[in-house]
Amino acid sequence: MDLSYTPEELAFQDELRAFLRNELPAEISEKVRQGRELEKADMERWHAILNARGWLAQNWPKAFGGAEWSAVQRHIYDVEAAAAGAPRIVPFGLSMLGPVLQKFGSKAQQDHWLPGILDGSDWWCQGYSEPGAGSDLASLKTRAVRDGNHYIVNGQKTWTTLGQHANMIFCLVRTDPEVKQQEGISFLLIDMNTPGVEVRPIILLDGSPEVNEVWFTDVRVPAENLVGEENKGWTYAKYLLTHERTGLGGIGASQAALASVKRVARAETHNGKPLMQNPHFAARVAQVEIDMRAMATSNLRIVSQAAAGGAPGLEASMLKVKGSVIRQEINDLARRAVGPYAMPFASEAVEGANDLIPDPLGAGPVAAQYFNNRKLSIFGGSNEIQRGIIAKVTLGGGA
Ligand SMILES: Cc1cc2nc3c(=O)[nH]c(=O)nc-3n(C[C@H](O)[C@H](O)[C@H](O)COP(=O)(O)OP(=O)(O)OC[C@H]3O[C@@H](n4cnc5c(N)ncnc54)[C@H](O)[C@@H]3O)c2cc1C
Description:
Blueprint: H1 7-23, H2 26-33, H3 40-53, H4 71-84, H5 91-104, H6 107-119, E1 124-127, E2 143-147, E3 150-157, E4 168-174, E5 185-191, E6 197-202, E7 211-222, E8 226-227, H7 233-245, H8 251-267, E9 269-270, E10 273-274, H9 279-307, H10 314-338, H11 347-351, H12 366-372, H13 383-395
Parallel strand pairs: 1-4
Antiparallel strand pairs: 2-3, 3-7, 4-5, 5-8, 6-7, 9-10
The structure holds flavin-adenine dinucleotide.
Residues 125-129, 134-135, 159-161, 211, 375, 378-379, 381-382, 384-385, 388 line the site of flavin-adenine dinucleotide.
């Protein structure tokens, strides 16, 4: 195991830094650094810039128009992009559906749907969870009944991230209610403009409409939109989840967030001294930095194993748990560093029009980020579920 970058990887890092310096629009990185809400147009613009360079679909094979980066290159991108204030790449089409279509989709589906993910003509969202089917996903009830060349879909999905921007949703639906739960699920691609699809916003703790309910009433879906075989959707769903969890550690974003906390804590005073000299605060910063470095090293170890052909499974769960705990601690430190300035709930600050509220530390979005990032230990499989997986694999009881 060699954890230092090779000369080629260092050259790639330089190339990436130059690209970010020259191509990342300042108004977008400014929004990211200030923790302000990105509009759909901002995310689409960044995707288009990456796509023009051939760097949008970083994990896709070249045959499908991807960059085919190694795991180490993706790690370098994660760190450099976050440090530069680049928006995160919206994962639903690129990291989730893309790999599923490449492995299980028909040639016609690959030809039809993959280019639209790259050029941004389709915005996908993920229709897995339902009320009553989150951790226990296999109990999902959204029903799809075959009717000639169509499926008729009825039911409800929930927590659908950025569904308000999407024109397409990939869904797990129940096609056979009579068999064991996992054996009656199919993977269906649904056009959200079809009559009978309704999107209703859910407002999160930070006031943002980031997630939605998606309702289906007698929605007619062409049978050609079934991925793979009917009732084999659980296999495809699990394959997708391993792709979803890899990368949930968010090391780059945490490093950038901690750097910002330190900047504020050096400028802010407590009892006449910089906050960074407060022993209690400094100890918490030191602890989270140690944890973060340990995680970064583990991440490199894991990506170097993956580069050598290993598949991250259990390790993805470990990174997900550790990464979310670290990020939430950094959010708490940020809240404490700015003190009372984090108190007002200021949606204007998040939206970028904060002239009315005194905000010398750029603290407007800090409370909103603290509340918003409660989600990190829930989505992509909650931390309790991940700990269960880790315990089962390491302490016995099977993988
Ligand atoms: C902001 C956000 C965005 C999301 N985006 C999407 C999306 O785009 N698409 C999508 O399909 N889903 C999405 N989700 C849903 C997410 O995957 C689920 O919330 C998650 O899987 C947990 O399911 P649940 O909310 O139903 O909680 P439940 O499964 O009801 O769990 C409730 C609590 O019980 C604990 N628990 C449950 N079972 C066990 C167990 N066996 N052992 C120990 N503890 C257990 C859980 O950890 C949790 O603390 C999103 C969620 C959030 C919060």
